[in-house]
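Good day; I would like, with your permission, to put a structural problem before you. I would ask you to consider whether the tokens describe a fold that such a sequence might reasonably adopt. The full record is reproduced below for your convenience:
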Amino acid sequence: MKDVSTKARTRTITWDDPMTALAGSADMTGLEFIRAIFEERLPKPPITATMGFTGGSAEEGRVTFTGEPGEYLYNPIGVVHGGFAMTILDSAMSCAVQTTLAAGEAYTTLEAKVNFVRPITLETGPVRCEGVVVHRGGKVATAEGRLFAEGTGKLLAHGTTTCLVFNR
């Protein structure tokens, strides 16, 4: 067997209690809640620290996130794991739905689908993801998302989601 020597790397992340943001959102609309997180008036969700992305902009029915693919996201075939694209797309699409919620409403994802169209590597550089609501009904909402390389504008992945809307 070949001796494969590697230099170990470490990565340390910190996060706030995710229930703090939820507790502070009881009287907020979904848009107010997302903006409070993006503006750091409420704690960011731990997944953003874990995966290396952050909220960008939020308006009713539309949300953006930005991220920086890191080596810690690589899989054994030498590219960023598809879970990174899936996670940032899921976040953008579902948060776009959340921006349509009235105070007292909540949602959960029923289904999500992602198409990976280009590999993501360190050379891809920063990425930008946009989620947009396609339909907002009384109980069901759908959204679509696109993930782009910021430097080139090339599409990396795209997806759709269906969310169930309900009273808290």
In short: Residues 21 and 135 are 27 Å apart (CA to CA). The domain at 29-167 is CATH 3.10.129.10 (Thiol Ester Dehydrase; Chain A). The two ends are 57 Å apart (CA to CA).
